[in-house]
Design a protein that fits this description.
- Helices cover about 60% and strands about 0% of the residues.
- The protein is mainly α.
- Keywords: Signal.
Length: about 325
């Protein structure tokens, strides 16, 4: 029996490994483009990604399809282009505005199809299992929260049985099924959760500019222990004496969904967040992400903490 099980496992293991491999991701030209992008050579990298996408490299199509709506990752380069040139660089040529490369890639990749579904009302639940099988935690969590906020507990219960549901996704489902609540907001008086995964569901409440902000500081201390927040932690430790006050300011400015999602790799399957966070470009991406936020533009952060504000201004 054990020999039979081992034989079956050997037969199917390559299939499982193949299932999470994107066509074209091992191509030397695609990997060279990833290296260029991580080094901050955006014009060269985007040009290569675009060429590969037109040549039906599915990995390049998915990467561009995910990168395009993340404005902080390209507007410093594409913002000066004409509309036609910007569309030609980031989208597949179809109609007046082009189409997302994900539309093309979905024919060859279950991941691309799931990413598209996760953006559509009524199709999010179908996408989450596939996204988590590809370990796309950041792409799965927001549609998962949307389902939870709609009160669809039956769908959450079914997803909870999926062995691919781990980490923040599992913590979210268990928090809702155990005690339904709105995730992404934090009470200013209630102490934060101690679970290391549940901290990934938290956001920091807007702190007082003069108060002690005990809860916000406690959250920042927990977040500093998580690798998902390492870009913020490193920026603050390098720039300000009071690291926690700096982290509170940055994370509160990145309001809305849990802020680590906004700093994750565009596509985990193609580029790990760990590698992205270690790259030369991450600090500038973080600064662009924060300075694009409405709360930052309102002048709140400048009034809250000058050191944090200056850290985001320094090249």
């Amino acid at each position: 029996m054990l020999r039979l099980f081992a034989s079956i496992l050997c037969i199917f293991m390559p299939v499982f490994a193949w299932a999470n491999t994107i066509p074209g991701q091992d191509a030397p030209k695609f990997q060279a483009a990833i290296d260029l992008w991580l080094d901050g050579d955006d014009t060269a990298a985007l040009t290569v990604f675009s060429e590969l996408a037109r040549d039906d490299n599915t990995a390049a199509q998915i990467f561009l399809g995910q990168l395009e709506p993340l404005l902080h990752l390209h507007t410093h380069v594409t913002g000066s282009l004409s509309r036609a040139d910007r569309i030609a660089l980031l989208r597949q040529p179809e109609g007046l505005s082009g189409k997302s490369w994900l539309e093309r890639a979905q024919n060859d990749s279950a991941l691309a199809a799931a990413l598209l579904k996760s953006r559509r009302v009524g199709e999010k639940a179908d996408a989450i299992g596939t996204l988590l099988e590809f370990n796309e935690q950041q792409s799965a969590l927001l549609p998962l929260i949307s389902i939870g906020n709609q009160g669809n507990l039956e769908t959450l219960a079914k997803l909870h049985e999926n062995p691919a549901v781990t980490g923040a996704a599992k913590a979210y489902i268990e928090s809702v099924l155990g005690a339904p609540q709105s995730i992404g907001t934090t009470s200013k008086t209630k102490q934060p959760e101690q679970s290391s995964d549940r901290i990934l569901l938290q956001s920091i409440p807007l702190p007082s500019q003069t108060g002690s902000n005990i809860v916000a500081t406690a959250l920042a201390e927990q977040m500093a222990l998580r690798p998902e927040y390492s870009p913020i932690q490193k920026l603050c430790e390098a720039s300000c004496v009071n690291r926690n006050r700096c982290m509170v300011g940055v994370i509160a400015t990145l309001s809305g969904e849990p802020s680590w999602i906004k700093l994750a790799s565009p596509v985990e399957t193609l580029l790990s967040t760990e590698r992205y966070h270690k790259s030369p470009r991450i600090r500038d991406d973080l600064k662009r992400r924060v300075t694009m936020q409405p709360l930052y533009k309102s002048g709140w952060l400048q009034n809250y903490d000058q050191c944090t504000y200056q850290a985001l201004q320094t090249p």
